[in-house]
Amino acid sequence: MVISWLKNRRRTKLLACHFPAGWLEILERNVAPYRVISTAQQDRLRDCIRIFVAEKNWEGCSGLALTDEMRVTIAAYACLLLLGLEHDYFSHVLSVLIYPSDYRAPAKRNDIGVIMETEDDRHGEAWYRGPVILSWKEIQEDITQPWDGQNLVLHEFAHQLDMLDREVNGTPPLHSRDQAERWHTVMTAEFSRLIRDARHGRPTLIDPYGTTNEAEFFAVTTECFFDAPRELREQHPELYDLLHEYYGQDPAEWRHERAS
Ligand SMILES: [Zn+2]
Fold first, then answer.
1. How many Å apart are CA 113 and CA 188, to the nearest integer?
2. DSSP code of 92?
3. For residue 216, how far is its CA from the centre of ligand 1 (angstroms)?
4. Rounded to the nearest whole angstrom, what is the distance from the C-alpha of residue 33 to the centroid of ligand 1?
5. d(Cα 107, Cα 66) in Å, to the nearest integer?
6. How far is the CA of 159 from the centre of ligand 1 (A)?
7. Tens-binned pLDDT, residue by residue, of the chain (260 aa)
8. What's the 10 CA to ligand 1 centre distance in angstroms?
9. What spacing in Å lies between the alpha carbon of 220 and ligand 1's midpoint?
10. pTM value?
11. How far is the CA of 212 from the centre of ligand 1 (A)?
12. Burial of residue 198, with CB atoms counted within 10 A of its CB: 0-12 exposed, 13-18 middle, 19 or more buried
């Protein structure tokens, strides 16, 4: 209890200070959704970012020198997920590790009952009760190509939401049995649809990487929900409604700013 009292006192103190002007420039330049959400949402996002940046242990890997641009951009996309949720600032994620670009990491593969250690090139990872690991190069690509339905930070932090109930199964903690039943029905149907489309080589809005398993499916649909919301609502209305209800946000109704 003392710890949470101290934590709350620290947070109140943090929020009493002005949001740094340099950070605001970063938000406006790098975070396309920030430019189109409501003023009230912008206020909440800035508060969330301040606490998120202050409470995480940030580490640059492979010699990467960390900058405010990296911290603020990553915090902004992670906190965007939280705007309509009850949350504690991803308090189970203690560290954010950033590599300059893709990195090689050992992986365990289960092939015909044999666990093999291999090496993979990775953009990012989310560990259960552990760090989130990200490639800054990949994030920079997301910054320059907003609204294409792909965003690494949204993806990895969606995994962290999924893991809040201690299971990695594509179902984050839900509010009611009714919602859980709808989640199961809609997600199962949409997951099967993506597998069918991928098998027939049909182009899909949702990244076919989502066919890997239910957890990846939830992560890639979250990317679309925030980064290609109108297309998702048009092509997958039931899935959009489900995520709208879960996230408590309606990104398809954000003021739109497409360059084209
Ligand atoms: Zn993933």
1. 27
2. T
3. 5
4. 21
5. 26
6. 7
7. 566 888 889 999 989 889 999 999 999 999 999 999 999 999 999 999 999 999 999 999 999 999 999 999 999 999 999 999 999 999 999 999 999 998 777 665 544 434 344 457 778 888 888 899 999 999 999 999 999 999 999 999 999 999 999 899 999 999 999 999 999 999 999 999 999 999 999 999 999 999 999 999 999 999 999 999 999 999 999 999 999 999 999 999 998 665 44
8. 33
9. 8
10. 0.92
11. 9
12. middle
Q: How far does residue 214's CA lie from ligand 1's centre (Å)?
A: 10
What gap in Å lies between CA 231 and CA 219, rounded to an integer? 17
Residue 19 is classified by DSSP as: P
- 112 Cα to the center of ligand 1, angstroms: 23
Structure tokens given for 90: 């991803």
Ligand 1 centre and the CA of 43: distance in Å? 29
Please tell me the distance between residue 125's alpha carbon and the centre of ligand 1 in angstroms: 7
Relative to beta strand 124-126, strand 132-135 is: antiparallel
Query: For tokens 């989130």, what's the residue?
Result: 132
Q: How many Å lie between the centroid of ligand 1 and the Cα of residue 12?
A: 34
Q: What is the Å distance from ligand 1's center to 156 Cα?
A: 6
* Residue 147 CA, ligand 1 centroid: distance in Å: 19
CA nearest to 223, candidates 135, 136, 231: 231
Assign 159 to helix, strand or coil.
helix
| Contact by Cβ (8 Å): 71, 22 | no
**The token pair that represents 188 in the structure block:** 């199962």
Q: Token digits for 68?
A: 């405010």
Residues in the chain: 260
**Is domain 16-253 annotated with CATH 3.40.390.10?**
yes
Residue written as tokens 């690991």?
133
